[in-house]
Automatic annotation (TrEMBL):
Taxonomic path: Bacteria, Pseudomonadati, Campylobacterota, Epsilonproteobacteria, Campylobacterales
Species for this entry: Helicobacter trogontum
Assembly notes: Homodimer. Within each dimer, one monomer is responsible for RNA recognition and catalysis, while the other monomer binds to the replacement base PreQ1.
Protein name: Queuine tRNA-ribosyltransferase
Metal-binding listed as a keyword: yes
Encoding gene per record: tgt
Gene3D superfamilies xref list: Queuine tRNA-ribosyltransferase-like
Amino acid sequence: MQFQIQAKVGKARACSFTLAHGNVVTPIFMPVGTQGVIKGLNSLDVKHVLQTNLILANTYHLYLRPGIETLKKAGGIHNFANFHGNYLTDSGGFQAFSLGENVKHEDCGIAFKSHIDGSKHFFTPEKVLDIEYAINSDIMMILDDLTGLPATKERLLDSVKRTTKWAKQSISYHNMQKEKYDIKNKIFAIMQGGTDYDMRKRSASELIELAFDGYAIGGLAVGESSQEMYECLDYACDFLPDLKPRYLMGVGTPENLLEGIDRGIDMFDCVMPTRNARNAAIFTNHGKINIKKTCYKNDFTPLDSQCNCLTCTNYTRAYLHHLFRANEITYHSLASIHNLYFYITLLKDSRQAILDQTWQQFKKQKLDDLAQIN
Ligand SMILES: [Zn+2]
């Protein structure tokens, strides 16, 4: 994979790399489209309004519904959803974690019961890749063993060992498929080890040996404090190779993203912008506001006067407040567009600041601004 570091300030980096559906520049925020759609948006919104070309879909959910036969017949997720940018698919490790008691981790894979109809399924590293080939995801995350925090040293060690074992199976299966077919899908491994220095170091070195296209830091934002996460990122990024993308999974607030970039992270995803939007929480350049509050009933200014998104350039806080109170579907769409645009723009601006060598000043100013309303 062609990967280039275009600028650096401290550990913060502006990079670019090429995927099957176009070039990606970082730092980047990837909107989450679990079911093959970003909740409240259609694919044209993603292309023309959000103007981004890398989004997430979820292997576990798409496998259960619509199923891989339908995805194969559609010619992959790009045709099925009519979005021809890049997709990254999560491997199912996080779903296994979040399904809790419906899941059993075994050394050869993860057994789970469908949350839809209770049917039984078993994911092996190879099976996960087969599903991801059917989806035709541009970045395939491999199966990992994720544990919540706090965790015992024994459980962390188990998770690291199992994740390495599954990584070995995944890369050897993928290399075999590459020999047989003209496969352009990239494959990323997921580092585990909780907030334990030695475990993270071990997990990273074992995975790096296997030469994946990129590396994710998994197992964070699962119960630890932001400070603990930052301390972990301080060393975890140093364990990863310079010339490969680094992806921090499932994180987080705008502040978390800025701190992550500062420690060398290139890629982020989180459901927070869309989930918060649905619950009336709107991100602005001056902190988070709750659009449900009565003070916005007659506020005829945009959600964020510094934002150029479709929502802010066409509608007022008063109108969004009204739509929320009236429980109108259009509220979800307009609020999600704004929150996602806010996240995507924050990272595009961060990239520009790194390229301009003004990152430190930019970060400080943004953190000060974001703290205003909180
Ligand atoms: Zn906006």
